[in-house]
Write a structure and sequence with these properties.
Blueprint: H1 8-17, H2 21-27, H3 32-44, E1 52-54, E2 57-59, H4 70-99
Antiparallel strand pairs: 1-2
Length: 101
């Protein structure tokens, strides 16, 4: 809730209002495999703190887990908003495809 606030409807409205036709076209041009790879790349990025590279291995941080606290959420705010934005567009496209007459 940190990235979008406590008012879910307001958050959804803001995300919807920010969508452009260009973003819809760009986000729907890829497939779920590419979406998973985007998320994986984010998890591997040093700034997310999910893992530390040792050679080719991306190992969990010391202690084996990531602490999701206020500082983490503040640091990840932009990524969280972007992922929600992309997910909403992509889910809408998938539902339109499946439910189209």
């Amino acid at each position: 809730m940190h990235a979008v606030g406590s008012d879910v409807k307001l958050a959804a409205d803001k995300l919807l209002d920010a969508i452009t036709d260009e973003q819809i076209a760009e986000r729907n041009a890829s497939d779920p495999h590419a979406w998973a790879n985007e998320s994986f790349a984010i998890s591997e990025a040093a700034e997310t703190g999910y893992c530390t590279f040792h050679g080719k291995s991306c190992d969990p941080p010391d202690g084996g887990s990531v602490t999701i606290d206020g500082a983490y959420l503040a640091k990840s705010d932009v990524i969280i908003r972007e992922r929600l934005h992309k997910a909403g567009i992509r889910l809408a496209h998938l539902l339109d495809s499946v439910l189209a007459d």
